[in-house]
Amino acid sequence: MTTIGILGAGKLGTVLARLAVGAGHEVLVAGSGDPAKIRLIVQVLIPGAAAVSAAEAAARSDIVVLALPLGKYQTVPVEELRGKLVIDAMNYWWEVDGVRDDLGSSSALVQAFLPDSRVVKAFNHMGYHDLDESGRPAGTAGRKAIAIAGDDADALAATAALVESFGFDAVIAGSLSDGVRMEPGTPLFGANEDAATVREMLAAA
Amino acid sequence: MILGLDTFGDVPENDSGTLVSHAAAIRQVIDEAVLADELGVDAIALGEHHRPEYSISTPETVLAGIAALTKRIKLGSGVTVLSSDDPVRVHQRFATVDAISRGRAEVILGRGSFTESFPLFGYDMSQYDLLFEEKLDLFVKLLDEKPVSWTGQTRPALVDADVFPKTESGRLTTWVGVGGSPQSVVRTAQHGLPLMLAIIGGQPSRFAPYVDLYRRAAEQLGTVAHPVGMHSPGFIADTDDLAKEIYYPHYKIQRDRIGALRGWPPLRKTEFDAEVEHGSLYIGSPETVARKIASGAGSLGVGRFDLIYTAGAQPVSARMRAVELFGAKVAPMVREMMAE
């Protein structure tokens, strides 16, 4: 059994955690502070998952998903994430994060902050309610796809397997810096489409 | 079952296809509210925005105008952006609307889905959560209508401050509007306030766990769980096709304008059709919309449904017709369907 840690107990974090529980993984969810603050949320919205601190979620999990506002990425526990596969599901939002034309992919910022973790970008382009509703068993006609981007082949393979277990096809978009093609302002952003369409949208970006 | 209409005062086209002025758009909302009142619609809620395509930035001023012309309809905001306002002034303004309307005012407090009010009134987006938490805390204290002492980081402290006018009922009806943040649901339960869910995409049944969360949080915290409300967008015309035909082009322009700011690609017709078919767009003939409301509200066990009946520049005559059909046909049909 894979243990999945989800940092962030908001709209996206709770949906991803529910998908992870549904896929049979052990799931640890952390909010921004004391786990007691999110215990009821986890109990009601993500039955089967456990509310823990961010440090514990990071330390005990095989894969850690970042589902907090991008502006808070520097609050993640760097030490506990050392050597881990870290999936970045966060998005840049200019209203909060400011206008940054110089940024490149926001996942590169995250990787720079976590130099000893393997960062893969995934689950950022599909709206959280589509994520919640669109998962289907492998082989279902028209199954929706999630684009993933990363620099490490093993990390990409593990992420693809996780995406599959959540009920989606995985489409590799390229290296972590190619993650810009999945970000706000690209054709793929907000898309809930099958693998062939996701590939076309990536090519068009 | 409370059935209401919500709008942000979108600037409509007149029937020759020209956008009307902000002033005319505000008067249009007043005309619609008067018609809704005559037809027995339970509530109207006006949302605060600070963008060119919406005419309403101060809901309570428009509500005061409506109050003087109507008899029964409840007069709400949907939402008042409390984070960038002063809770004391919000309470005073709604207590005033409550006086004019003989007890029909209700405020729906929220964080809003836009951020223009932050720079406009000098608030810092990095305090997004703190501003709402603190101001909601103060507002709840003000609801007792007794002298308040309060200290926080986002507003000067109050020492035994008494706030006027007092309401006749002794308590202003106050809801919290939530867009899907679980923490906001818990916070609402913690304050013992009724919850209004903004469900603007996806299947309404997806929100059932949130209703459950609200009730269980209230139970654990020893507060009262009130009937939950929901609001969702839609439009009514005489036939399904006509409703979609009138609504879609303006909705797409508005959706793409906002999407351009948020990094979404342009809306495609297939996405719109899917949302009408399975999601949270209540568009069609009175019967289609009534059936969808009864099913959506039924799946969540809510006690209130508000239809956001404007989204873009739908023409004035079509808007009036939508309000008329909602009051005369949809609302009675929903009541009948839900009684069964």
TrEMBL record, chain A:
InterPro entries: NAD(P)-bd_dom_sf, P5C_Rdtase_cat_N, STEAP_metalloreductase. Keywords: Oxidoreductase. SUPFAM superfamilies: NAD(P)-binding Rossmann-fold domains. Residues 3-92 form the Pyrroline-5-carboxylate reductase catalytic N-terminal domain. GO terms for molecular function: oxidoreductase activity. PANTHER family: DUDULIN-RELATED (PTHR14239). This is Pyrroline-5-carboxylate reductase catalytic N-terminal domain-containing protein. It comes from Actinoplanes lutulentus.
From TrEMBL, chain B:
Residues 21-297 form the Luciferase-like domain. GO terms for cellular component: cytosol. Keywords: Monooxygenase, Oxidoreductase. GO terms for molecular function: monooxygenase activity; oxidoreductase activity, acting on paired donors, with incorporation or reduction of molecular oxygen. Gene3D superfamilies: Luciferase-like domain. PANTHER family: BLR5498 PROTEIN (PTHR30137:SF8), LUCIFERASE-LIKE MONOOXYGENASE (PTHR30137). This is Putative LLM family oxidoreductase. It comes from Actinoplanes lutulentus.
